[in-house]
Amino acid sequence: MIEVADDVTARPTRTDVAATPRDTARAAGGRPGERASVSVEWRKRLEILFFVTPALALFVLFVVTPVVQAVRYSTFKWNGLGPMDNFVGLENYANALRDGVFTDAVMHNLIIIVLSIVIQLPLGLGIALLLNRDLWGRTAMRVIIFVPYVLAEVVAGVVWLMLLQPGGLVDAVFGALGLDGIKQLWLGDPKIALYTVMVVLTWKYLGLAIILFLAGLQGVPTDLYEAAQLDGASWWQVQRRITIPLLGPTIRTWGFLSMIGSLQLFDMVWILTKGGPANSTMTMATYLINQGTNRSLYGYASAVAVLLFIISLVLAALYQYFVLRRDNQDAPKPRKVQR
Amino acid sequence: MSAPAVTPAPGRPAVLETPRRRRSSTSTGGNPLLYVAALVVVAATLGPVLYAILGGFRSNAQLAAQPVGLPDPWVVSNYINVLTSGSFWRYAVNSTVIALITTAIVAVFGVMAAYPLARYTFRGRAMLTTVFTMGLLFPLTVAIIPLFLMIRDLNLTNTFWGVALPQAAFSLPMTIVILRPFLMALPKELEEAAMIDGTSRIGFFWRILLPLSGPGLVTVGVLAFVASWNAYLLPLLILSDPATQTLPLGVASFSSEHAQDTAGVLAFTSLAMIPALVFFLAMEKRIVNGLQGAVKG
Lengths: 339, 297
Description:
The complex is a heterodimer of chains A (339) and B (297).
Chain A: H1 4-10, H2 21-28, H3 34-73, H4 91-98, H5 100-131, H6 138-144, H7 147-150, H8 153-164, H9 169-176, H10 193-218, H11 222-230, H12 235-246, H13 248-263, H14 267-272, H15 284-294, H16 298-329, H17 334-337
Helix pairs in contact in A: 2-3, 3-16, 4-16, 5-10, 5-13, 10-13, 13-16, 15-16
Chain B: H1 32-55, H2 60-65, H3 77-84, H4 87-119, H5 125-134, H6 140-153, H7 160-185, H8 188-196, H9 201-212, H10 214-230, H11 233-238, H12 247-257, H13 262-295
């Protein structure tokens, strides 16, 4: 069996040693001739290069370079055209931190992080426990529950925009329930717009929490339930004492994902409110785009991007240290018990 | 975010995890309250989606007179208008092409890079793995301004590549992180047997490893495809020419251009949902397993 394709890739490198793949294999198999092993070593390096280069090049060009550039741009005052020669040091950072709109945006991101977890954790856990029982139509419900997550944030946002408009479905539902007094300019009132956005986000992302929790529930060993039932524990006691504690690692990982997602929130806000009214739903990402592409303050927007990254990194590190550390220490994980 | 930046646990290939069917230990029988709760959840989840689809079959007058209600009579002109407008199809085709390019690049480059990182021993392997893994920390948002300017300087504005290449690059870390343990889990004997038969490493990669990594590739491919299909921020900045715009951009601009035409917007949005929903129903297991596997430790 001759490896034509491989020989082509390897040939340019072979100067004197004519090692066929068969030789290579033999050499690797424990009879290394001196020259063969040098060639094997070279061949291996070239193979590694061949395999890694495309991904590495793409990664360096479109991920590493822009990130490094963002740091560089952030120290200039620059509108994206002409030479970038107005070095201002850390002035962009100072300006951002002094801008109330930005600090409010950071606050909004933090509110969204906290509310997401506070709302979605109990709701998601409750629904996951519900769907983990022998309900009729359980499989169908598991699919349905995930539908909002699959839709594009833009698509979901536009649908909710229609639902929330004055005289739309949401108002009609409240009207039907006799709660006409609750009707609001859901997205038009600065006092409540952020919470309206929060409701839409809950609708969109609850399915992810439920699906992840359900996966975690599958790892809870059945014999534990049986033992608890034999001991006369009620369903609720079983959930509280066994299921939820064993679900800990899944919940903590979900919390991390939820936090990271909340920090980068852009699409939904851009569709629903563009950050308004009166900047009341502005997030770091919408602020960044506002300043950057809409007002061409590229240096300033880059500083905002770097701040966004630093804030995310700090929060991620804190979460890792205070919350996830326990998982890394706990050697026996629940699902391993089952093996 | 459209797809979460998942931090997968190393050493456990997502896809090798077959979902264990376990009968729930607590047989609940037919507690009606549970069914009421389940019904509320389903209604709240599907309500907005159904409202959009049904609303597309109503006229604006119907929607204004009675926000809740079935179409009476059923109006198909909204859907017909969208389907015959041409722009909807153009958006859909653009979305498909960009998602396919992104997925192809991610799958090919990803599995190629994951292979040596998983199955070769060489100096710098750990460092290289870390470089890719670190990519998970950098969301597209952080790099968006320089990316926008770079794509402009490369003359890739308003091209599919201008969106697909950065998307693929940002999907690579996740792909490699999922595929590496998957490739590591394949038995070493396979490689030894192939070597003894005279197959080179590259031959082994094409003939044995690639076919065996099919399930892993499908998972990362589906995740990359969905992320690209739903993407908004990057296309928003790169694709200003309507001829190159994707469905999310189309939905957004249609809804702001026809703000008064609620029924039309609902019809357009409903049609934009269909590809994602069909794809999800077809790939449900893969998507769910991929996300679940990525979180399990």
